[in-house]
């Protein structure tokens, strides 16, 4: 509402908000929002770019949450299928990354509810379980670290595992986690605090 | 009694404290061994978990996922094409059946196939009523009329109708 403002000589020009949002990242690549906008119009190449850009991260997240690669692949497939179906309904209130993470977290929860956890445990993890925790923090190669992390994460409750993975492995902020998990920010903080207490208890022999 | 401010160490470690609070806590950590130990533990856990974070999916995983997810537009086009093909096939079948029926009907024509669409009754000067039926044009109208004249026979010739 304008008060005492001189009217524009040639009328007002409506602002198209879509055109004011950045369409390119500093490195010249198109932003996620722009890719979603193009994908919504049926641009398959744009959807493919979203898959390339976020697929690896989503797979890693799913694998950390579920502890099994095959399950993670199924969940990521379901997630991107849901992303494809939900393109029209995406309102841009959260970032595309947070939106997709929220879908994936829901798919993981659904997967846990509806299926039995696979009893086959990767061979490395079996060896690790037999040997007990060997205090490899910061020492071993990448695959060994990953194996030990998986065995520790399995000992957390699903709620604690989710919050730890989102924070420590996905580097999400408290607000992003609140949006992804559909919980208040205060709940994020308290849940993260309790999860860390549990982790410290599990790893007490290896911490300062 | 533990330090009250250790509760804030998590948010401080995560860079989620407002700037003023963060500065205040940073000064406190320099003085408080308990808070300093808590911060070191959280940093160790973060390093350890962060090192295990999966940065990329195995190369074949994304290609498999891409193949299994068909973009919506392609699915819609496929469905429309399938529906139209099914409809065209149905029309073809129905038309073929109708043509077959007509061809069958043209092949077999008998007097008894006469249509009953028209029925004319007209007096005849010599033989009473003559019934005419609308018959297929098979050139045998006179014989058919004879048959139906018999039906009207009043016994004049001594024979029973």
Please, what is the CATH homologous superfamily of the domain at 31-119 in chain A? RNA polymerase sigma factor, region 2, helix turn helix motif
Return the structural class of chain B.
Answer: mainly alpha
Q: For the residues shown, what is the average pLDDT of chain A? A: 80
Give the low-pLDDT segments of chain B: 113-161
Distance between the termini of chain A: 60 Å
Q: Cα distance, first to last residue of chain B?
A: 131 Å
Shape of chain A: globular
What kind of oligomer do you see? heterodimer
What's the total number of strands of chain A? 0
Tell me what portion of residues of chain A adopts beta-strand conformation: under 5%
Radius of gyration of chain A: 22 Å
Q: State the total count of DSSP E strands of chain B.
A: 2
As residue ranges, the low-confidence spans of chain A are 8-19, 119-136
Order of helices and strands of chain A: HHHHHHHHH
Total separate domains of chain B: 3
Q: What is the CATH C level class of the domain at 31-119 in chain A, in words?
A: Mainly Alpha
- What is the percentage of strand-forming residues of chain B? 5-15%
Please identify the structural class of chain A as seen in this structure. mainly alpha
Layout of SSEs?
The complex is a heterodimer of chains A (208) and B (161).
Chain A: H1 32-40, H2 44-66, H3 69-86, H4 96-114, H5 123-131, H6 142-153, H7 158-169, H8 174-181, H9 185-202
Chain B: H1 9-13, H2 19-31, H3 33-51, H4 59-68, H5 72-107, E1 119-124, E2 128-133, H6 141-151
Antiparallel strand pairs in B: 1-2
Helix pairs in contact in B: 2-3
């Amino acid at each position: 509402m304008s008060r005492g403002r001189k009217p524009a000589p040639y009328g007002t020009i409506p602002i198209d908000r879509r055109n004011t949002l950045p369409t390119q990242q500093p490195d010249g690549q198109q932003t996620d929002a722009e890719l979603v906008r193009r994908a919504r119009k049926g641009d398959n190449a744009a959807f493919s770019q979203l898959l390339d850009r976020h697929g690896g991260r989503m797979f890693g997240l799913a694998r950390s949450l579920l502890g099994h690669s095959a399950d993670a692949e199924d969940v990521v497939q379901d997630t991107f299928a849901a992303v494809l179906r939900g393109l029209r309904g995406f309102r841009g209130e959260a970032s595309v990354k947070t939106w997709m993470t929220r879908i994936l977290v829901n798919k993981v929860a659904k997967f846990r509810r509806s299926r039995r956890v696979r009893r086959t445990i990767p061979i490395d993890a079996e060896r690790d379980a037999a040997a007990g925790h060997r205090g490899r923090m910061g020492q071993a190669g990448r695959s060994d670290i990953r194996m030990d992390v998986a065995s520790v994460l399995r000992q957390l409750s699903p709620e604690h595992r989710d919050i730890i993975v989102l924070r420590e492995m996905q580097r999400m902020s408290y607000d992003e986690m609140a949006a992804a998990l559909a919980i208040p920010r205060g709940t994020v903080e308290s849940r993260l605090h309790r999860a860390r207490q549990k982790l410290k208890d599990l790893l007490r022999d290896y911490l300062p | 009694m533990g330090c009250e401010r250790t509760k804030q160490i998590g948010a401080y470690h995560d860079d989620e404290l407002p700037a003023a609070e963060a500065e205040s806590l940073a000064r406190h950590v320099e003085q408080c061994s308990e808070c300093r130990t808590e911060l070191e533990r959280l940093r160790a856990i973060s390093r350890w978990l962060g090192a295990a974070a999966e940065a990329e999916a195995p190369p074949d995983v994304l290609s498999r996922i891409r193949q299994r997810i068909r973009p919506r537009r392609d699915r819609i086009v496929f469905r429309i094409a399938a529906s139209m093909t099914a409809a065209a096939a149905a029309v073809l079948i129905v038309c073929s059946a109708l043509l077959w029926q007509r061809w069958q009907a043209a092949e077999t024509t008998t007097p008894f196939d006469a249509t009953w669409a028209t029925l004319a009754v007209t007096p005849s000067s010599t033989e009473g009523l003559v019934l005419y039926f609308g018959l297929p044009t098979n050139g045998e109208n006179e014989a058919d009329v004879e048959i139906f004249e018999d039906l009207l026979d009043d016994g004049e010739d001594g024979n029973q109708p």
